[in-house]
């Protein structure tokens, strides 16, 4: 099935914001996190930027591959906000094409390519030197739609319950990426 953007999805260019302040990918309260900022694109696409910090090194002066995979995962995960579904990564296949030095900004783009039942297929690239620069990393992913209970059961229930009773409807919806 062709992916369909939710009618209430953020407009192209709009910042998506963090789904959880403690998220390693997008949270503002995570000091060594990626602080990745994603914006809605056209259709079911997003763009995002992330600048590699010294805390993200693997080899001296170069980004750790797992951190780059996290940046791809986070960007791909933010696509769910355009679909208004809650989904988690089931599979993430990553190609590391070029080394990414500390201080480099990674320009990420992601797109949902297909959907089948609970399965959401997506792809992402990360470029360096500018949004049109050479591809340094790319990934193909399979996300699986889940119920809120996934996080209640496996995660920290108190925080999930608190987020669910947040009177701010947008914040509540953003936390769980559900159809309000
Ligand atoms: C203030 C508080 C705020 C709180 C806010 C919380 C909510 C936030 C909202 C959203 C979070 C976003 C977070 C963003 C971060 C970026 C995204 C991540 O990193 S997510 C973390 C990493 N991922 C996991 O931890 C998944 C761990 N895995 C699982 O839980 C299960 O394995 C799961 C749900 C992925 C699948 O389990 P099943 O039991 O539901 O599904 P089955 O029945 O096994 O499979 C369904 C279909 O999918 C295929 N499938 C499943 N896993 C597959 C795989 N790995 N590869 C290929 N196919 C797979 C199967 O073959 C099956 O296909 P057939 O329907 O038969 O055609």
Which short descriptors sum up this protein?
single chain; 180 residues; alpha+beta; Thiol Ester Dehydrase, Chain A; six-stranded antiparallel beta sheet; globular; binds ligand 3VV; cell projection; cytoplasm; Acyl-coenzyme A thioesterase THEM4; THEM4/THEM5_acyl-CoA_thioest; lipid metabolism
Helix content: 10-25%
As laid out across the biggest beta sheet, the strand order is 1-2-4-5-6-3
β-strand percent reads: 25-35%
The CATH architecture of the domain at 37-147 can be named as Roll
Q: What would CATH call the class of the domain at 37-147?
A: Alpha Beta
What small molecules does this complex bind?
ligand 3VV
- Helix count equals 5
Overview of the molecule:
By secondary structure, the protein is an alpha+beta fold. It has helices at residues 65-78, 80-83, 149-154, 157-164, 169-176; strands spanning 37-40, 45-51, 87-96, 105-116, 119-128, 135-145. It has a domain at 37-147: Thiol Ester Dehydrase, Chain A. The protein has 5 helices and 6 strands, in the order ββααββββααα. It has a 6-stranded antiparallel beta sheet with strand order 1-2-4-5-6-3, covered by helices on one side. The longest helix is centred in the middle third of the chain and has 14 residues, at 65-78. The two termini are 23 Å apart. The structure holds ligand 3VV. It is found in: Cell projection, Ruffle membrane; Cytoplasm; Membrane. GO terms for molecular function: hydrolase activity. Its EC number is 3.1.2.2. One of its GO terms (biological process) is fatty acid metabolic process.
């Amino acid at each position: 099935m062709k992916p369909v953007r939710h009618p209430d999805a953020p407009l192209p260019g709009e910042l998506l914001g963090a789904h959880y302040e403690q998220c390693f990918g997008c949270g503002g309260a995570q000091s060594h996190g990626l602080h990745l900022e994603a914006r809605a694109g056209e259709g079911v696409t997003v763009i995002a930027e992330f600048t590699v910090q010294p805390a993200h090194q693997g080899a001296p002066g170069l980004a750790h591959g797992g951190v780059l995979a996290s940046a791809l995962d986070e960007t791909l995960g933010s696509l769910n906000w355009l679909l208004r579904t809650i989904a988690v990564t089931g599979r993430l296949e990553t190609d590391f094409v070029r080394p990414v030095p500390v201080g480099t900004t990674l320009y990420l783009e992601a797109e949902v390519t297909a959907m089948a039942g609970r399965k959401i297929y997506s792809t992402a690239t990360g470029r360096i030197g500018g949004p049109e620069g050479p591809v340094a990393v790319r990934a193909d992913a399979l996300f699986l739609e889940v119920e809120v209970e996934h996080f209640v059961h496996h995660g920290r229930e108190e925080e999930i319950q608190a987020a669910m009773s947040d009177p701010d409807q947008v914040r509540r919806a953003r936390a769980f990426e559900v159809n309000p």
